[in-house]
Amino acid sequence: MDKFNNLPSKIPVFPLSNFIVFPETTVPLNIFEPRYIQMIDDSMSSERIIGMIQPKRTGSLKIPELFDVGCACRIVSFNETEDGRYIIILKGINRFKTIREINNTKLYRELMVDYNFYKNDDNLNDDNKFEFSKIKEILNELKILFEKRGYQINWKDLDNQNVYQTLSALSMASPFSILEKQILLETKTLSERKNKFEEILKTYNSDFSINKTVQ
């Protein structure tokens, strides 16, 4: 498990609401705040690792409390714009649980983290035994929800993906709440994620419980 063992236990984090990342997925980010410019500068000169994590709606606006689980990501592409912004692409590596926050004098926040709870993130091949037909209902229900919300998605992009990649992409792009996305992020297995996804989706496509949040 070289990848698992080489991940740093202390990582800078980027708290971003309604934004989750799974291992083996890639996401673009537009960085413009000075604190995160500094974070990317420091990361690029070291392991190029940052943690993506969702803030809770508790605590102060400047320093909100964070959920316990996030995903360590590697900066795989970096570009600087003429106006000083950074356009980066992150690739998810491994999910983590927070041990504690580090007191520092930097503009950004850092956490001590533990990857052991999600050590199976290093072996994502369990989806080879997971038949794609098992998520057909999810795809059909999600298409209905996207039509209701006016969302557009290129479903053909999913044709060449396996079940793990598809569920990860849909979990990240879905119009679910912060808490609902966090529930999906914290699932340990593909089966658990599929079941939670269906459970959440039913609350959105049922008229009598359209605003219900799954606990």
What does this structure look like?
The protein is of the alpha+beta class and about 220 residues long. It folds into 2 domains: about 1-120, Roll (Archaeosine Trna-guanine Transglycosylase, Chain: A, domain 4); about 125-210. The protein is built from 6 helices and 8 strands. Helix 3 runs parallel beside helix 6 (about 190-205).
Major pleated sheet: 5 strands, mixed, barrel
Spans of at least 5 consecutive residues with low confidence? 207-214
Give the CATH class of the largest domain: Mainly Beta
DSSP summary: helix tally: 6
C-alpha Rg, in Å? 18 Å
Question: How far apart are the termini?
Answer: 33 Å
Helix content: 25-40%
Shape: globular
Q: Spatial order of the strands in the main sheet?
A: 1-3-6-7-8
Structural class by SSE content: alpha+beta
Annotated CATH topology of the largest domain:
Archaeosine Trna-guanine Transglycosylase, Chain: A, domain 4
Layout: helices, strands, pairs:
Layout: H1 2-6, E1 10-15, E2 26-31, H2 34-44, E3 49-53, E4 55-59, E5 64-66, E6 69-80, E7 86-102, E8 109-114, H3 136-149, H4 163-173, H5 178-186, H6 190-205
Parallel strand pairs: 1-3
Antiparallel strand pairs: 1-8, 2-7, 3-6, 4-5, 6-7, 7-8
Helix pairs in contact: 3-6, 4-6, 5-6
